[in-house]
Design a protein that fits this description.
Helix content is 42%, strand content 19%. With 277 residues, it is of the alpha+beta class.
Length: 277
């Protein structure tokens, strides 16, 4: 008779069942078969990730953390970090479930949270996923059944549980940023041939105002569009088995060579080395 699995192992096994689940919207199963890293990866919104196989190393200007299977990786607010994903030496596989905490989830958590909200705290944190097993199981069951409202409610409860551990900074709305609004537009349709007039119409601003406000934020429209497209490409390379050519086309690049060059310049990583295709 096989010995019963401990609760943590059971949780990781259940989370691993999300790979290939057609109903699992709003999350990413990141897999890799080769050790690789990427630098200057922008994370725009709070999210959590749970390492299922292999190890993850992350570094920001202020923190350096390493995560093993069963660790819950919390990104409490917008940040830029360097990441290295290291496959398990036995299976040769790296696997992480990443769960974005969308604005609907955060808004619900703000309503549920009655204590003071602090904007202080680390950008990143390492926690034990087993401590949040009940909320994760509720989220998982709702997601696999296609009950997305219940899934968001479970994530709101999980967010509140994280706040009880002192991570209320995730409830602080980010400061308004025109670049962020443009990135959200591009992410919704990265293959579109975005021109300044399209962005002006969508945001209700003039061309002069658009340029002036982006300069004040230290960037320009071309840079924002390129960064948003490449961020979408990063997501697709990790969460699909599409070849690089298909990913490039999906994010608006007609030339694979041009896409590969831009991606490598941005992240210090050849997109083909992610290895999911």
């Amino acid at each position: 008779m096989n010995a019963p699995q401990d609760p943590r192992s059971l949780l990781l096994a259940r989370l691993g069942s999300l790979v290939g689940c057609a109903r699992a919207e709003g999350y990413a199963c990141i897999t890799a078969r080769h050790e690789h890293g990427a630098h200057a990866v922008d994370i725009d919104h709070p999210c959590i990730a749970i390492v299922l196989r292999g190890r993850k190393q992350v570094r920001t200007h202020a923190q350096a953390l390493e995560f093993a299977p069963g660790d819950l990786f919390l990104i409490a607010r917008r940040c830029r970090m360097d990441v290295t994903n290291i496959p398990d030496p036995d299976s040769g596989l790296y696997l992480t479930v990443t769960i974005p905490l969308c604005e609907e989830v955060l808004a619900a958590a703000r309503l549920l949270w009655t204590d003071p909200i602090s904007g202080r705290g680390d950008d990143l944190a390492r926690l034990d996923s087993a401590e949040f097993a009940t909320d994760l199981q509720h989220w998982l069951a709702a997601l696999q059944a296609g009950r997305y409202t219940e899934a968001r409610l479970a994530l709101a409860a999980l967010t509140v549980a994280l706040c009880r551990r002192g991570h209320t900074t995730m409830l602080v709305p980010p400061p308004p940023s025109l670049a962020m609004r443009i990135r959200d537009l591009i992410r919704a349709d990265p293959a579109r041939d975005w021109q300044s007039t399209h962005v002006e119409a969508a945001l209700g601003v003039s061309g002069a105002t658009l340029r002036r406000r982006l300069v004040a934020e230290g960037t320009g429209l071309r840079e924002v569009v390129a960064a948003a497209r490449l961020a979408c490409a990063m997501d697709l390379l990790y969460t699909t088995h599409w070849p690089v050519k298909t990913v490039a086309a999906r994010v608006g690049y007609r030339s694979v060579a041009s896409f590969t060059r831009r991606f490598s310049e941005r992240y210090g990583l050849d997109p083909a080395h992610i290895g999911n295709a």
